Amino acid sequence: MERIAEIAVRIELAPGATLKVCDPLEVALDCAICRRCYRTVVFYEGQLQGFCTPTGHAFPGRITGTHLAPSSPRASVAYQLLFHYEPFTDAKYPERRPSGHPTWARVNFQVVCPSCRRVTDATISSNDVRPLEWRCACGDVLFIDREAQPVLSAADAV
């Protein structure tokens, strides 16, 4: 069955800072190919499949949309994924049950410092300790992440 997932983050940008979304998007999904739950699947914009880690085999899913609202002071990024899901028994831990929805995610992006114009690579993931404050090498605050994120959801494709 096909499922649609959304991964969304919202951050407080420093005044004048700008945001650019970058590859990859990493999402924990159940993989029916290797029959393992909670696998980190890596997606790149424009590719027709993801890659299941740590094996690196192709994963039947792709990014179908990205929405970026980069304005200060609240910026948001939302990804839509389409992926194949089927129930299975975990090959290593049979007591685990696949959920059919993302359980963790990491979003990668770049922030341009409003003071020195330096570009800083940054990430937000589900297991970050919050509040999280990212600073530029010059010392200025780039953004603050106060919320439990990324927000993850999934539903059957219609």
Structure notes:
By secondary structure, the protein is mainly beta. It has one domain (2-156). It contains no helices and 12 strands. It has strands at residues 2-13, 18-31, 36-43, 50-53, 58-59, 61-69, 74-84, 104-112, 119-125, 132-135, 141-145, 151-156. Strands 1, 6, 7, 10, 11 and 12 form a 6-stranded antiparallel beta sheet that branches. Strands 5-4-3-2-8-9 form a 6-stranded antiparallel beta sheet, with no helix packed on it. The radius of gyration is 17 Å and the shape is elongated. It starts with a strand and ends with a strand. 26% of the residues are buried. The mean pLDDT is 93.
Q: Secondary-structure map with pairings?
A:
Elements: E1 2-13, E2 18-31, E3 36-43, E4 50-53, E5 58-59, E6 61-69, E7 74-84, E8 104-112, E9 119-125, E10 132-135, E11 141-145, E12 151-156
Antiparallel strand pairs: 1-7, 1-11, 1-12, 2-3, 2-8, 3-4, 4-5, 6-7, 8-9, 10-11
